[in-house]
Amino acid sequence: MIIGMGMDLCGIERMAGLVARNEGRFEARVFTAAERAYCWARGQPAQHFAARFAAKEALLKALGAPDGLAWHELEVFHTPEGRPALRLRGAARRAARRLGVQRLHLTLTHSEGMAVATVIAER
């Protein structure tokens, strides 16, 4: 049963500007070390940062934006099969458990200057 769904889009140029400013402070505040390493290893890091930001926002919407979550508690990674997935820690994990979330589905795409993510929370 679907108990939550969220979708978000993020401008790639906007993300490129945020990542370029502030000597990496935004990037370090929002993304885990593993996410940063993944994005910087790609040919166009900004589109991967934008997709991950959109995924985190979409997850917040799917969970009903519970209070007390930190960006680093939401991590986008890839399964061994190459699918994007979400790893929750701390307050994010507790919020998902309270809602009865047993499985999260994530899809990411980027094109024409935008990155889009959709999250479905399933019981």
**Number of domains as seen in the coordinates:** 1
Q: Per CATH, what is the topology? A: Ribosomal Protein L22, Chain A
Query: What is the element string, with H for helices and E for strands?
Result: EHHHHEEHEE
Note the gap between the termini: 5 Å
β-strand number: 5
Quickly name the level 1 CATH class: Alpha Beta
- Which spans have pLDDT < 50 for at least 5 consecutive residues? none
How does CATH name the architecture? Alpha-Beta Complex
Strand order of the largest sheet: 1-5-4
Q: Helicity, in percent?
A: 40-55%
Morphology call: globular
Classified in CATH, the superfamily is 4'-phosphopantetheinyl transferase domain
Structural category is alpha+beta
Average pLDDT taken over every residue:
93
- Main sheet, how many strands, which sense, barrel? 3 strands, antiparallel
Number of helices: 5
Q: Hey, roughly how much beta strand do the residues contain? A: 25-35%
Q: Rg from C-alpha positions?
A: 14 Å
What report would you give on this structure?
- The chain has 123 residues and is α+β, with helices and mostly antiparallel strands.
- The chain has one domain: Ribosomal Protein L22, Chain A, CATH 3.90.470.
- 41% of the residues lie in helices and 31% in strands.
- It is built from 5 helices and 5 strands, in the order E-H-H-H-H-E-E-H-E-E.
- The strands form 2 sheets. It has a 3-stranded antiparallel sheet with strand order 1-5-4.
- Strand 4 and strand 5 (114-122) form a beta hairpin.
- The longest helix has 18 residues, at 45-62.
- The protein starts with a strand and ends with a strand.
- The model has no long low-confidence stretch (mean pLDDT 93).
